[in-house]
Amino acid sequence: MTDCLFCKIVAKEIPAAVIHETERTLAFRDVNPQAPTHVLVIPKGHYENAAALAAADDGLADAVLKAAHDVAVQEGVADTGYRLVFNTGPQAGQTVFHVHGHVLGGRGLQWPPG
Asked: Is the pTM of this model over 0.90?
């Protein structure tokens, strides 16, 4: 997608603070962090939302989830706890329509979230 912000980050057309990368995924710091650890994990290919990712192909959703856990370990929040959030659709708060998981941690996270 030529107008997708995250596709442009994958293509290195827009800079990002990349902290983890695999063959199929990319993780970078959120520009508007909501917790001490706030990292976005995306597939390198374009999928609009979590539903599209789940239907995409065998193993891609798993690769994104594994990358999110790797980020939590790398950021030092895996043992104390972290939250994974996938907003799907405008009413859920999705503003960039390239699926992305938020890895949030480093402080107590309340429930319900918003």
From this structure: yes
